[in-house]
Amino acid sequence: MVATSDGPEGDDDRVTGGDCDPGHDVVVHLQAAALEVIAAVRAFLDAAEGVVRDPAAAVTLASSLAARARPGHGEGDEPEGVQRIRVT
Predict the structure, then answer these.
(1) pLDDT score for 88
(2) What pLDDT does 69 receive?
(3) Which of 35, 39, 38 minimizes the C-alpha distance to 5?
(4) Residues β-bridged to residue 3
(5) What predicted TM-score, i.e. pTM, was given to this entire model?
(6) Staple 51 to which of 2, 28, 37, 58, CB 3.0 to 4.6 Å?
(7) Which of 22, 21, 1, 30 minimizes the C-alpha distance to 13?
(8) Signed CA dihedral, 36, 42, 47, 51: sign only
(9) Cβ-based neighbour number of residue 43 at 10 Å
(10) Comparing C-alpha atoms, which of 3, 5, 28 is closest to residue 18?
(11) pLDDT at position 57
(12) Do 37 and 8 contact (CB within 8 A), yes or no?
């Protein structure tokens, strides 16, 4: 039995060779999952490459995220339509 696929975006995930057996769906789903993992790793590697090529941008992003994560950030200056509800 040979598994074939056109890639993560392809609609042509199938198993070829012989009659379909009970494991057919399992193989197709595992193929799709593996292709999604590969796509995610590629995206991560692209982001990592960007950080290596331009570390200043990564520092700026990290600083911005850290500033937003500080307790009390934004109190009193919420955008219109946002209501802060304190839970005690």
Answers:
(1) 80
(2) 78
(3) 35
(4) 15
(5) 0.46
(6) 58
(7) 30
(8) positive
(9) 10
(10) 3
(11) 84
(12) no
Q: Are 2 and 17 in contact (CB under 8 A)?
A: yes
Q: Pinpoint the alpha helices (H) of 1-88.
A: 24-53, 55-69
Separation between Cα atoms, residue 33 and residue 3, nearest integer Å = 13
Task: Write down the residue that tokens 């593996």 correspond to.
Answer: 34
Q: What is the helix (H) or strand (E) element at residue 14, kind and residue range? A: strand 14-16
Query: Which one-letter amino acid corresponds to residue 51?
Result: V
The pLDDT assigned to 64 comes to: 84
For the chain, give the number of residues. Answer: 88
For 2, the 3-state DSSP assignment is strand
**Structure-block tokens of residue 49:** 């490459």
């999604």: which residue's tokens?
36
pLDDT string in tens for the chain (88-residue length):
455 555 555 555 455 555 667 788 899 999 999 999 999 999 999 988 988 999 898 888 888 888 887 766 555 565 677 777 889 8
